[in-house]
Amino acid sequence: MRYDLVIFDNDGVLVDSEPISNRLLAAYLTELGHPTTYEDSIRDYMGSAMHRIHELILERTGQRLPADFDEVFHRRVFAAFERELQPVAGVTGVLEKLTVDGMPYCVASSGSHARIRVGHRTTGLDRWFTEERVFSSEDVGRGKPAPDLFLYAAERMGVAPERCVVVEDSPLGVQAAVAAGMDVYGFTAMTPAARLASAGQLFADMGTLADLLV
What we know:
Elements: E1 5-8, H1 18-31, H2 38-45, H3 50-61, H4 69-84, H5 91-101, E2 105-109, H6 113-123, E3 134-136, H7 148-157, E4 164-168, H8 171-179, E5 183-187, E6 201-203, H9 209-213
Helix pairs in contact: 1-2, 1-4, 4-6
């Protein structure tokens, strides 16, 4: 393969969590007096670390979200994950192929370590992602679109940024990967291709990824 490390985003790339979490985020923000549709949430917050939600609400309304916002939101999301979450179609085959080929991979997610773990345990992906393969925006000072998380993951995995490829489904994630000096494959299953245009390669079927990386 042309790379030494594949870095996966988590939500929407490994686990099919974006419809669940954005539905709940839109409902919770609306409940708190910040009317938000599902489409608004996808556009504004998909791929974001939690701090960006707080920052955008404060910037737009002058109001701060409640101190327990993250705790309440994660409790709702985790409960929904336990009931509904599935792996992204085709991703297990990709992980199997990377393992057989001896290709190092990891996950670098805007979500918390707890969120990543709940999702992986629920979908059975935890067998593919041991602790040393899991990186969260909690590990760095700035989340996506800053490059910090991807650079941190590459450093911990012992691979130079230019030898990494990132698999992302959000504009913020693509922006972060480009800023890190990494190649990016944009997954367009949920995100219009035009919003991921900065990615070097676009694809809509996760099952085709392993062949694209060769």
